[in-house]
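Students often ask why we bother predicting the structure of a whole assembly rather than each chain alone. The short answer is interfaces. A chain on its own may look different once its partners are present, and contacts between molecules only exist in the joint model. In this exercise we take two input lines together and write out one structure for the complete complex. Read the inputs first and try to guess which parts will touch.
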Amino acid sequence: MIDDRAGPAVENASAGVPIRVSGVTKRYQSARGGEVHALDEIDLSIDAGEFVSIVGPSGCGKSTLLMLISGLIPATTGTIAVGGAPVKGAVGNVAIVFQRDVLLDWRTVLANVLLPVEIKKLDPLSHRRKAQDLLRSVGLAEFEDKYPGELSGGMRQRVAICRALVQDPGLLLMDEPFGALDALTREQMNLDLQRMWLRDRNTVLFITHSIEEAVLLSDRVVVMSSRPGRIADIVTDDLPRPRGAHTRSDPRFIEHVERIRRHFLALGVLSET
Amino acid sequence: MSLAQAVPSPATPSKLAIWINRNGPVLAIFALVFAVWEVAVRALGVPDYILPSPSVIVAKIFVSWQLLLENAFVTLQEILLGFGLSVVIAIPLAIAVVYSRIFERVAFPFMVSLQTIPKVALAPILVIWLGYGIMPKVMVAFLISFFPIVINSVIGMRSAEKEMIYLVQSMGANELTTFLKIRLPKALPSIFGGLKVGIGQAVVGATVGEFIAAEAGLGYLQLISQVRLDTPLLFAAVVVLSLLGVLLFNAVAFAERIALPWSRVATDVAE
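Now the answer. The structure tokens for the assembled complex follow.
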């Protein structure tokens, strides 16, 4: 209690950090020995606090780009900066949410959320309260002491998101976080995510296969083509927030979705009929 | 009638009722087998040195309890030392295999190919090397229980998903933290699987070791009883040996339940 920052969720800690990706190419050896050209000359700037989605066909290097930005794998050429600092090795201010929730089965829900607090050696007391507040905000207050095995898929992914947010990340990297959820749960998760983002305003890079999901959530949608992955288009999406079910019938929403879909038609990922 | 009394209300069956419900059929089968055995042996007049009846075996256990206990203690010592040695060597070795390329590429395949040697066949050699005392039995118990533990530990430590490792690395975890927070706890169910196989194997190893050459132990007692045609004592030794096995297995299963309270997998205690 020495430090007043230790206040509960009211602390509006994480202003987002900007990302600058310039001329990034990634090649790697595939398991069979061939060379895979995953990304080619990617240039992308994301402002602090911006919500950007990446859509693209399977194998277009979306996930690779996300891993490069996290610093966990190195780029072949080009530079990446997160928060103004060049990326060399794991970036400190980043939290990742994967499609698989990767909760640790042997820890309770609360202990799972507190994992980054332990590893980063953050103040345990204040973060415990923050974790509890986060769990409450996604309707999991009573599940603190349960084990992940006792939770549904949607609940587990909510816990994974709380685990990411408890560290007040300047940048939230999400790799198809709702891909494994049923349609209804997914819609609710979209709204939950938007609410948390509107509150915290961290920078979010969100990978998805769903064009609608990308348009619903994002400030900008990056459309990628595949092999090697390149940026085909960037759609600016300034629909009013908070968005919700009503947004889907907005003519501009439909227009954005159509524009992205046309790219996929042109790329041959989708066919007309 | 008595069952109805044991159930206070239909909604909340008592612990006793649940226990009877779960274990009743098995106990009934055991009771039936022993009853048939007892009646058949008496009716057909089978001599004790061929097949003693259950009641004769039980009587023998009561009469010879001191002898059985003394020898059981020797065997238990051999089992625990052999099994303990396995654990102490297998788990660090598994860590080495998971973290070192040389161990992974050379030592592990080598161990797996050694696995094909019937360890029991090594017992006479061990006697030549280590003499008639406790050591050769400990070594057989060790050799035979070692492989399931090391192999299960390696599989368990490799089972952490790639994303899980990325996740903690993104939080700035080093290798030690990744091991302690992810790989080891993730491996525990698999390690315990290996321990449960291993403890059973250690019982076999110690007993077989005693068959080869010994001065004490339940296996030795069996050998002596066989020579003397004291079949009831032979059976009594088998009973004590299985009780020992069940006891040790349950001890490991109990440790597992303490260590893995989150595990939903039913690790039913052996009957």
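Check your guess against this: Confidence is low (pLDDT under 50) at residues 1-8, 265-271 of chain B.
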